[in-house]
Every structure is written in C-alpha cells, then in structure tokens.
Design a protein that fits this description.
Chains A, B: It comes from Mesobaculum littorinae. 2 copies of one chain form a homodimer. Chain A is an alpha/beta fold and 537 residues long. Chain A is 36% helix and 17% strand. Chains A and B meet through α2, α4, α5, α7 and α16 of A and α2, α4, α5, α7 and α16 of B.
Chain lengths: 537, 537
C-alpha cells in the first residue's frame, strides 16, 4: 500500500467499498488457492484473519476445519497433502500463532510436503505502533518455509499466490508462507489477475543413469541402492527389488520416508536404522551408494566418538534423483539399463496376533499387523517401541506408512487428522509414544468434530524413554536420582482415556497383548475416532 | 570451536576427559546461572540437552521442573520471574522445541520479564549434515529474544553467560537466549573465567521531571498520567493517586500491566480499555499525557475507520521513565515536584458473593472478589468476561494481578505454574477462557506434579467469543452459518473436568454463581491444584 494516508492513523475506509459480493484481497487469495486445486484449510484464526475466514466461508469448493492449537493445523495440512499429493492450506494468527505451528511446519518441510501457510499480519499502517501481538512474522516463517511472500496490494495477491502454487506443484518449493496484511485482505481488488505460465518438468539425465548402472554392477554386494521420496510407491519398491536382485546390491530406504506403500502385495524394503550404532553396523561394508531421491545418510544426533556420516569413509556416492524428488522414472530407467525385470513380491505368511502376555514391542507389532484393515494409513510416532511393528506390517494387509522426517515430536495425531480428512474411505492408525502425544493432544478434538476414522494407540511407558536410552550414549552418564525425574512421566501418570474423553473421543485402556488386539479390531470396525491407551510391560 | 578435526566427522573425544567431577561447558553454563542468582529451571529437554540435564542434576542450588510442552516451560519461567524479580531458566530441545516455546517467550519479552532461554544445538561438526532436527535456531530465537548468544568454546561459556545475566539484571536485555552446541556442552573447560563489571544504574532526569510537573499542572483535568511497569507496586499506586489529586489529571495504567499490586489496601487504578471504541472514548479529552514506564497507547489490532493511536490528534506526550522501567523513583520525584502528598486508600466495602443465578461477567467478578485469599496471585486470561472481575477485585483482599502484555493466548496456566513455584506460601488463581486454555493444557500436569496451590477457573463459553465480537467490528461481516463453525468450541464440547483429571488435577463443574463461589472457597482452602469449569450463561 503506497497511500500515505495509511501511515498516519487514518486508514482508507474499506467497509464502504467491500462487502460479501465485492472481491477483496482475502477473496483473491482464497480464489487463487481454490483455482490451483487447494480445497481444504486447517485453521486457528484470530481477529486479523476474520476477512480470510469470511472469504473461506463464501468460497465454493473450500472446506475449513477448526483446530484448537496451531500445531494441529500444520500437522493436519501435512497429512492431508501427503495423502492427496495436493497442498493444503493452513490459516494462523500473527507471529505467535505461526510460532505454535512451526514445529510441524518443520516436519512438513523436511518431508517435502507441499503446504500453503497463510499467516495474518496487522494492517500495514498499524505495524509502526508495535502492538502487543506484533512480531517478526517473516523472520519466523523463513526458518520453516522454502519461500515467504507478503503481498503489498490486493491486486498482486492472486498473481503471487498462483505463482507460489505453481512452484509448490513443480516441487521447486514445498512449504510456502503467505504473510497477509489485514488491509491487503480487506481492501478491494481493482486490477486484472495475470497468471504465470507453468514451467516444464526437468528431463531424465541418461548418462547419470548409465553411470549408476555401471557402478552398481561393479560393486556387487558392496553396492547400496538408497531410496527416499515424498511417496515411495509399490512400483518403486518392485523396481528397487529388481535392481537389487540383478546386481546383488543391498536396497534400503532412508530411516524415515514421508509416505511408503507397504504390506503383503509390496516388496518389503529395509530402513537405515535410527540408532547410530545399528546404522553404522548395517552400512559398514558399503563401497558404492546410489542415492535415488535420498540424502546421504547422517546420524540423527552427534555423539562423542561416533561420526556424523553413516557411510564408511571412502565410500563412493552417486545420485540419480535429487533428494525427495519423484523416483519411479529414474528407478525404471536404472532397471532398464541393468536389464532388471520386476517380479511379484513373495507373499508373506498371515500375521498372527500377539499372544496373551504383556504388551512388548514384539507383541505390539503382531497385534497391529494382524488387525490392520485393508488400505489403512499408519502414522508412526512409536519412537522407542516401533521397530518390530514396522517389520511385522510387511506381511499385513496393503497399507500406507507415514514417517516423521523432521523429528519434532507431537506430529502423529495432527498428521492423522489430515490423512483421515483426505481419505474418508480409509482407516487411519496413529501409533504414538505418550511423551509425543502430550505435545498436541488437541488433535483429538478435531478428530471428534470431524467423526474421523482414526484409531489412536498411545504407547504408555510413562517416560521419555528415548532420553534415558540416549543419555549415556551421548556421554552424559546414566540417569540417576536427580536427572531421572526430568524424563519420567509418572507422578502423576497421565490418564489418556480421560484426556481423550475430555476432547470428545472414546477411550479404552489395555495392558495385555490379547486385549490390545481385540481393542484394535473393535476400534477399526467402529466409525469415528477411538483412543487406546496401551500400557507397556 | 576452531579445532579443524571437529568439522570432518571425527569429533574430539570428550567422554574420556569429562565425567561427573570434571567441569564441562554444561557445568560452566549452569554454574554461571546459579552464581548469578538463577535457582529454577523449567525444562523439556531432548538428546542434545542431556549434558545440560546432567549438569542441572549435579548443580547445588538449582531445581528443575519438567514440563510436557515447551510453551508451558517458557510461560512458567515468565511467571516465576515476575513474582521473584529474578530470571528463571528454560531448557528447550533444538529449533522445534524453541518454536513450541516461542509464543510464551513473545509474551515474556513484551512484559519485559527477565528470562534465560537455553536451547540445545547439534554439535558444531554435525551442523553441516542437516540432520532431521536441524533448523535455524538463532533465526527463530532473534524473533522472541532481546539478545541471542552461541558460545563457541566451553572456555567462553561462563563469561558470556555472566555477561548476559548482568544485562538482564540491569534491564538492558530481558529475554536472553543461549544456543548451546552439544560439543561445547560436553567438552571440558580449560580456562579461567573472567567476569564483566556491572554497570551503574542510570540517574534520574531532574529537568524532565520538572517539565512534566509543569505540564500536568497546566493541563488540569485534560492531563493524563499513564503508568506501565514490569511491577506496579502499592507505593506507585499511592504516588500516582496523589499526583492525580494534586493536579486534577486522570490516572490510568496501560491496558495490560505485567504485575500489579491491588486490593483494598491499594489505591485503585483504572486501565485503558482493551476495546478500541471504549479506549478512544476514555481518552478523547486528553490534551497532555505524561508516560511513566508506559508506551503511548495503541489499538490492539487495526480496524477500518479507526486510528492506530488511541490518544487524540494533537495531544502532547511527555515521558519521564522509559517503557517498562521501574517507576517508583520517577513517580516520587514527580509527586515531590508537585508537592503532592500520598494518602491512605479509601477502604472499599467488602465484596459480596455473586448471588444465586447463572454465571455472568458481573457475578464472576463478585464470586472471585469475595473469595480471594489474602496475598493471592491472580493470573488473568479472562478475555471477553474479565472486565468486571478486575474492577470488583479492587475491593478484595490484597493481591497481585498478572496480565498478558503479548496477547498470545495459552499464557495463564503456564504463568500460574511459575508464579506458584515462586511463591509456595501464596494461592494462585488462574482465570482463563476455554479457548485460551486449550493451547497449553499440559500445564495442569506440572501443577499436579508440583502440588502447586493453583485454582484454575475455566470460563466455558464454548467459543472463541472474542472473534465473533471482532468479526463485524473489523468489517468482515457478522458470523454466519459458514463462518461460525470456525469460532465455536461445541461439537464436541470439551470436558474440562476430564481433561484436568487426565493430567492429575481434580476438577469440578459449576453453572451457578453460588456454586462457583462455593467451589472457589473450597479450592482455595485445599492444598494443591483444583480446576473449576465455570459454564457461563
């Protein structure tokens, strides 16, 4: 806005020019998003977003879901986009609202999930006065976004938004933040909208494919094909397995893949372990690594006496697709260059439920695998208890598996909200540690509000168990009487059944493997959300 | 760290050199904080903070309180520091942990609360690998901190921390963030610590005081004395009232004061109203404003057709103490220049409880005032229902009143944790809207864990009522069938009694004024926390 009147406390009147029928900047923003294929918004708005709320209300083809905490909204948008492949919108209130949503924006950015984060800003003429909620929104947004735009007039909103969406769709940019000054939202649009042309997708790099084929052929069983992608499909798993069979190389995925198709109709793929020592052991003989959509594997944290890079020193590294790009085409080209033909996966035996004893990581895996509905979406935040579950589910009904690439906990219940919203005909299974669940319990309310078909399993070990494990590994000594209270969730023990019921979600507590299997089967068969507190042995 | 070995994946071994008895960078940090008077830490640590956790565990004179969400930790540190006048420490896990704590850091910064925020960072040699949790911590921290430091060697940690504490104590800096690389934490200290000398406090500006006295004398009843301070004491209220009586000027406080002493032993002070139209009306006749620790009043949000500045155009403005500084000395000097003598406050009649009907803003005020224990600390996040409560409590037992200067909701339960920790012999009353409470419900768990004497009143109107009020005021039309669902907390209605019990806090629901009065009296008389869900008419 260049109108000098806007800066002396006498803003131009907007109410007389705009109304429900005269498009303003807010309408331009929402209209451009709808036109670009965005149909869903997860919102936690405030006063500065009321014009955007009004525009959302009058936009045909846009559905808005209210969340009680911003971290739920951003995680839900991540889950929605992972399952639809299309960006979802988030609507947040000024800098502090953005701050509350940033941890799950971080996760979305690391997972290369396309997402449009709209943050309301004070009217431009109000910024000089440092009002209570004033903050450096752009500064915050840059830390969790690939691009940040702040439209300066309603006439540029549609063009800038369409351009941003184009970049998201092409994959140049994943998390895009629009900082929307309130006067830009409430002032009328006067100009024509011009749209940028979409740019073409990059072509396949044939010489790189041939070089990778030669490398893997020469390396034999000292070769590694490492996969990473926003979505690792059945076909990609088949192609990778064929390449492994043809060359003798090991095939692995990154430790956390944003979305993987899995189950008994899919070639099983092994992950790089999370635990640094297990990862070093798993990769110690690799002489040549070919990366397809993957980054070179690194330790989750640094530890004294352990390296940051997980591949052995001197290991050769070649990439045939950039990190987190689509990988089917380069894998198909690599398989063709090697003459590797895909085969049907070997049908694994049916999973059997987890017996009748206490709940352990192994019985958890068996219970989950035996009861998993066809087409389920598993959102995994099982942290210290999940490794056997991932393995067991290779023999389960076909499903998608969503992992956290950003490592910020409090991710799985929000992402489950979004996945269930995106796929109303599929069941979502959210498996989360109790420590993680305590960051974003408000997600339960949006599950209840939307009658979302989500089964939440809280793995109640009543501790930040991973910290007790990590403390001595990182050289800080064993937890003792003074430090253990900083990682224990007892005194009081959270009652997750009551927390669920408080948010409108029915809950049940189980402490045997048999009861967990039964509770899972019942929850999956019951419309709407259910929470199961699984008390671990 | 300038050791080149640190950057090639072969970190210097630390475990062989440091142990529980050999001080490392973490010990240097915690030791400098303890020496500087910091005795309390609110923590939500992760792997990169394990050496800091170990150092906290072995530091005599430091107590650590675990919080289940970072926003609880930062709010608690704010409350602790407001009540003790000394900075508290917060311990957070990497960028995403900081992000979750940023909204309440924003509030603390706006309230000028001294606070040391320690954020663990990956080891310096690990940063090049962009591990999952890697983020721009300094970029995030700068948006909510007055100063950010990142020690580069253990030998500088104590010096840099002492310098930071000195700045906090002098008031140059309020929120200070220390980004602590993990290798700096785990490596041994080898050098002597040198401490900076404290700088002297600034002297009083006598000519400015005389000019302000002349201004107020000349303005008569068109004068305004506007107060703001980190702590507005009984004596400051008496001095301000004396100045008002001597000159005929109006005396007001800012809309939100971080901490105010109030009650029947204190001269009552009126606030600048939150609502922009009420504020403009209240200030419309002011010709000369004298600011004492206050900022010039501005609208909380911008609205079409309303100005940002709340004082009339042409109003003279003089400041005799900078925003959020201590104000007793300049007020005493101004009173002396005016020959204004303080008097005893007029004893207000005893508050009578709120009758037997439904709970309204008026009966809420009466119930709270009639039952408020001597020396109580009121943490006010009552939003749309609180104005009569503030007024009624002027006649209540002497108490402190804490307000949110930053406007980011989810503030009051965390701040109550800190206030109750700071003042174990006083009762804390936390009054919060249900929308606000849903941002940081995890605070209840730390209240239960600490047996903190907190009475939490949830004002359950089952809506973001303020948004429904604000929507038409800001020109976005009245809420309708499409937009009202974006601000209603029904379907499902949160059950706050169950949410409290789930976090280990006993709860009760009331829906009449008489029951609320009774529940308040009972809660105040019961050791430990109680939650009262007050269903509003």
């Amino acid at each position: 806005m260049t109108d000098p009147d806007r800066h002396d406390g006498k803003p131009t009147s907007a109410t007389s020019q705009t109304g429900p029928n005269a498009p303003n900047g807010a309408d331009a923003l929402i209209g451009a998003l709808v036109e670009g294929g965005v149909d869903t918004c997860f919102a936690n708005p405030g006063t500065t977003e009321m014009h955007l709320v009004a525009a959302l209300g009058r936009a045909p083809g846009m559905t808005t879901h209210l969340c009680l905490f911003e971290g739920v909204a951003t995680g839900a948008a991540d889950g929605y986009a992972r399952m639809t492949g299309r960006p979802a919108m988030v609507l947040l209130h000024l800098g502090p609202g953005l701050a509350n949503g940033m941890a799950n924006l971080h996760n979305a950015k690391k997972a290369a999930t396309p997402l449009v984060c709209v943050v309301g800003e004070h009217a431009t003429h109000h910024l000089a006065y440092d009002a209570p909620l004033a903050a450096d929104i752009e500064g915050m947004a840059r830390t969790v976004s690939d691009v940040v735009i702040t439209p300066d007039t309603p006439d540029h909103v549609a063009r800038d938004t369409a351009d941003l969406l184009g970049r998201l769709t092409r994959g140049d940019t994943r998390v895009g933040t629009v900082v929307m000054p309130n006067d830009v939202a409430w002032s009328p649009v006067s100009a024509e909208i011009t749209r940028p042309d979409p740019r073409p997708a990059p072509a396949q790099d044939a010489p790189a494919i041939r070089a990778a084929a030669d490398t893997l052929r020469a390396a034999g069983n000292k070769g590694l094909l490492l996969l990473g992608a926003p979505r690792l499909t059945r076909r990609a798993a088949a192609l990778a397995s064929a390449i492994g069979a043809a060359t003798g190389c090991a095939v692995r995925t990154e430790a956390a893949v944003a979305r993987m198709e899995r189950g008994r109709d899919t070639h099983p793929l092994t992950r790089v372990p999370f635990h640094v020592d297990l990862a070093l052991e798993a990769l110690k003989d690799v002489a040549q690594a070919v990366l397809v959509g993957a980054r070179e594997p690194v330790a989750f944290f640094a530890y004294p006496d352990r390296p940051s890079r997980l591949l052995p020193e001197g290991c050769g590294v070649t990439a045939i697709a950039p990190p987190l790009s689509d990988i089917e085409a380069p894998l198909a080209a690599l398989a063709e260059a090697l003459g590797a033909a895909t085969t049907a996966p070997v049908t694994a035996p049916d999973a059997s439920p987890g017996g009748d004893g206490p709940i352990t990581p192994d019985t958890l895996g068996a219970s989950v695998a035996a009861t998993l509905p066809e087409g389920a979406i598993v959102v995994d935040e099982s942290i210290t208890n999940g490794a056997p579950m991932f393995t067991a589910c290779a023999a389960a009904a076909p499903h998608d598996w969503l992992n956290n690439r950003g490592g910020s906990i409090g991710y799985s219940m929000p992402v489950s909200v979004g996945a269930a919203t995106a796929c109303p005909d599929r069941r979502v299974l959210c498996v989360t540690g109790d420590g993680s669940a305590a960051y974003t319990p408000q997600a339960l309310w949006t599950m209840a509000r939307g009658r979302l078909d989500v089964t939440v399993v809280i793995l109640a070990n009543r501790a930040y168990r991973i910290l007790a494990n990590e403390m001595s590994k990182i050289g800080a000594g064993r937890p003792d009487g003074t430090t253990m209270p900083m990682m224990e969730l007892t005194d009081p023990t959270p009652d997750w059944v009551k927390i669920a019921e408080g948010h409108g979600v029915p809950g049940v507590r189980v402490d045997t493997a048999a009861d967990l299997t039964q509770a899972l089967a019942r929850a999956h068969a019951t419309p709407g959300p259910t929470l199961i507190e699984a008390v671990l042995a």
